[in-house]
Every structure is written in C-alpha cells, then in structure tokens.
Amino acid sequence: MNVKAARASATRESILVTAERLFAEHGVQVVSNRHISEAAGQGNNAAVNYHFGTKVDLVRAIVRRHAERMERLRAELVEAIDGDGDLRDWVACLVLPSTTYLRELGAPTWFARFSAQVMTDPALREIIAEESLSSPALARAVEGLNRCLDGLPADVRAERGDMARQLMIHMVAERERALSEGTPTPRATWDDAGTGLIDAITGLLLAPVTPVRPGD
C-alpha cells in the first residue's frame, strides 16, 4: 500500500470510529457529516461525503465494519450445535455473538448503543435488517429456534420474537451505556450478561400462552 492509499485508509477508519461514537452518544439524526469530519480531525469538512457518500452509506459501513467478526462467532456456535440443539442453544446463537464481540473489543465500546440508535430510526433500521438477511449462520439459528417452537401459535411466536429482539438490542446497549458512565451493572462481565439474557429470552419464549377470549 502506497503512502496516499495508507493515508486514505487511516482517514476512513478515523471517520468510522468517530461517527460510531457520536451516533451512539447523540443519535444518528442530530449528528451531521460536517460534525463528524471536524471531530475526526479532518480539515476538510466534506471528508465524510468524499469517503462514504451519504449518511446512509456511512451507517452501512459502520455496520459492516463489525459484521464479519460477529458472523464468524455465530457460525462457530451454530456449527458446534450441528443442528441438534435445544431452544436455549439456539437462543445462545442469537445472543452470544454480540456479548462475546463486545467483550473482545474491550472498553470503551459504542457499537451496542449505535445499533440501538439505528434500530429506532425507520429510515435506517432496514440497513441492519438487510445485513441480517445476508447472514447464513443467523438464518440457520432462527430456523433451529423455530423448530423448537413448532407448537407455539404463529402470531405468538412472531410477537415474542419481537420482544426478544428488543431485549437483545436494548439490554446490551444499556449495559454498554452503564459501563461508559461507570455506573453499576447487574452482571459483572459481558459473558455473565450474555448468560442472563439467554436465560431471560428462553423463559420468555417458553412462557404460557393465555387463550384469547371471543370478543377480546
């Protein structure tokens, strides 16, 4: 890599790290590309536009920056089950790639809060959905989980899937926020937090279903 290419690569990395932090701390819509360029130490306020294009392109680049490692972690978990897991095993395939990855990153991290911000934005959440659809390991994990819930009514399964998704996104983001602020957390480590989340989601999926009365 020549000097010019190396400088461009370093600039892109600086912009990605800075944008992720600012989006996590302040929200995606209130942070402008100009603000990101300035915070990343770029004299050219159009640096974000030059290297990434639109804000949507920048958000997608941040997601992809983390996706490869998380996909490998999930693939390892899925392969270890070899198609023969119970419900808790498949839930672990959904939870642990995030908590393990955040542990590996060390402190501080911003990706969990960034993801939560993106998922609350209707215009941007499709980016994460698109990346998820391209994940073979995630597809296999969801398929295995659904096999274990075969007796659950489809509408209840869909509803609890939404609940579980909210837990996975926002509980991880809340732990990351607490760590950044130095406030107490219910669990001492990311691994322990993952275990607690797996237990909670498994219990949620297996909870009794109250029959809907006619006219309700």
Q: Can you describe this structure in just a few lines?
A:
The chain has 216 residues and is mostly helical. Helix content is 73%, strand content 0%.
How is this structure best described in words?
The protein has 216 residues and is an all-alpha fold. 73% of the residues lie in helices and 0% in strands. It contains 10 helices and no strands. It has helices at residues 3-26, 33-39, 47-52, 55-81, 87-105, 111-119, 125-133, 136-148, 154-181, 190-205. Helix 1 (3-26) crosses helix 2, helix 1 crosses helix 4 (55-81) and helix 9 packs antiparallel against helix 10 (190-205). The protein is elongated, with a radius of gyration of 19 Å. The termini are far apart. 33% of the residues are buried.
Query: Kindly, what is the distance between the CA atoms of the first and last residues, rounded to a whole number of angstroms?
Result: 66 Å
Radius of gyration: 19 Å
Query: Which geometry do the CA atoms define?
Result: elongated
Number of helices: 10
Number of domains: 2
- Let me know the largest β-sheet: none
Uncertain runs are none
Short key terms for the protein model shown above:
DNA-binding transcription factor activity; 216 residues; transcription regulation; single chain; elongated; mainly alpha; 2 domains
